[in-house]
């Protein structure tokens, strides 16, 4: 290592679920993650846990990304910026319907602040967290990056669509800027060390946290939303991707950005496994992987849910030299190992 130049990567939301795993992947690839997080939806000991995995402490700044002065102070403190990965955002679909202003203010406000700072500082490379939610209910499967973007079902979904548009517009007028929009499918699992994972506040909205909490006895039973979808077993299909595979995609995206000589529009990549699994398959695979039964019942469809979506991830494979390598069973096993480290709610 010696006096090799440190490649600082600003990671907004670096203490969150995907952000924390990406810090590990960055460190493993030789980058220096610099975390900025307001800990609104993450715990203050996460940076220490990351340090335990990678064997060295990482810089952490408790600042809200919408606070321009606070963000400037961070940018002033470091010499060289290799890029920024922007995770900091709220992500609960139901909450976004109940509190749209909260979502627009935070998710759009933080992005605007960041883009302003990228304009003012030598920080030119941006990886943005987007979502397959931009495709809505697709006509053709798997979805490619050329599949049409559909009107969002929620303010959360709009913040991703609008975020993509804002970056695209800013890219047009910023010759030095390089950006990628990563459209995540369904991130699940945890780091295999069991030191970091997903920490849903209260009752989980997402499937896998609900499955593992039910297996742990924190919830009486899982409700499978809908068994009348036009799929083989009647339950909805998603593309579940291990969070470490997703984390590694960010590192590859950053590397890719540094190879781009010029860019008029952002790079757009689906980040999924390319395979769909039904809710029932997730439950069965969890039971096989862990030997633990998940009590469940069938309920009605959840409003706003699509029937089936999974990625065509060949563009990411070709351009970023990235593809998912971990199985659904591994992801569920790792999610379960993580769950077992958690204390039940009081
Ligand atoms: C949701 C969001 C997506 C967001 C992602 C991450 C929608 C339409 N999409 O994805 O935009 O990026 O979360 O936060 O809300 N399920 C059950 N029982 C449960 C929970 C879920 O059967 O208790 C089913 C759902 O109906 C769905 C599947 O499991 O078919 C996956 O649900 P979930 O984990 O919430 O992810 P998405 O809805 O795909």
In short:
This protein has 346 residues and is an alpha/beta fold. Helices cover 38% and strands 16% of the residues.
Q: Can you give the helix content as a percent range?
A: 25-40%
CATH superfamily descriptor: NAD(P)-binding Rossmann-like Domain
Q: Summarize model confidence as the mean pLDDT.
A: 96
N to C succession of SSEs:
EHEHEHEHHEHEEHEEEHEEHEHH
**End-to-end separation:** 46 Å
Radius of gyration: 19 Å
Structural class by sheet pairing and helices: alpha/beta
Low-confidence stretches: none
Strand order of the largest sheet: 3-2-1-4-5-6-11
Could you explain how this protein is built, in words?
There is one protein chain. Helix content is 38%, strand content 16%. It has 346 residues and is of the alpha/beta class. The chain has a single domain (8-339), classed as 3-Layer(aba) Sandwich (Rossmann fold). The chain has a seven-stranded parallel sheet with strand order 3-2-1-4-5-6-11, sandwiched between helices. Strands 7-10 form a two-stranded parallel ribbon. Helix 1 crosses helix 8. It is globular and about 55 Å long. Residues 91, 93, 131, 133, 153, 157, 186, 205-207, 210, 222-225, 236, 238, 279, 302, 304-305 line the site of uridine-diphosphate-N-acetylglucosamine.
């Amino acid at each position: 290592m010696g006096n090799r130049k440190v490649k600082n990567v600003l990671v907004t939301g670096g203490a969150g679920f995907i952000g924390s795993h990406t810090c590990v992947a960055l460190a493993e690839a030789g980058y220096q993650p610099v975390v900025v997080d307001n800990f609104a939806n993450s715990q203050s000991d996460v940076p220490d846990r990351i340090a335990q995995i990678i064997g060295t402490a990482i810089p952490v700044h408790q600042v809200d990304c919408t606070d321009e002065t606070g963000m400037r102070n961070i940018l002033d403190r470091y010499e060289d910026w290799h890029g920024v990965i922007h995770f900091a955002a709220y992500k609960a679909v139901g909450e976004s319907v109940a509190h749209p202003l909260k979502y627009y203010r935070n998710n759009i406000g933080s992005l605007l602040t960041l883009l302003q700072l990228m304009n003012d500082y030598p920080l030119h490379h941006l990886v943005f967290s987007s979502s397959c939610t931009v495709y809505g209910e697709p006509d053709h499967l798997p979805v490619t990056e050329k599949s049409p973007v559909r009107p969002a079902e929620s303010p959360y979904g709009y913040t991703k669509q609008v975020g993509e548009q804002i970056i695209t517009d800013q890219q047009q007028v910023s010759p030095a800027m390089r950006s990628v929009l990563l459209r995540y499918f369904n991130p699940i699992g945890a780091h295999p060390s069991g030191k970091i994972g997903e920490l849903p506040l209260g009752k989980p909205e997402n499937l896998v946290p609900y499955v593992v909490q039910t297996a742990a006895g924190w919830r009486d039973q899982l409700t499978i939303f809908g068994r009348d979808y036009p799929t083989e077993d009647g339950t909805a299909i998603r593309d579940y991707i291990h969070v470490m595979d997703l984390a590694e995609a960010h590192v590859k995206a950053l590397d890719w950005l540094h190879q781009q000589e010029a860019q008029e529009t952002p790079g757009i990549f689906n980040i999924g496994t390319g395979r769909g699994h039904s809710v029932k398959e997730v439950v069965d695979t969890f039971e096989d992987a862990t030997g633990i039964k998940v009590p469940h019942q069938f309920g009605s469809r959840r409003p706003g849910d699509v029937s089936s979506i999974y990625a065509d991830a060949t563009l990411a494979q070709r351009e970023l030299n990235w593809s998912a390598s971990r199985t659904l069973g591994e992801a569920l096993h790792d999610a379960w190992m993580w769950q077992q480290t958690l204390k039940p709610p009081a």
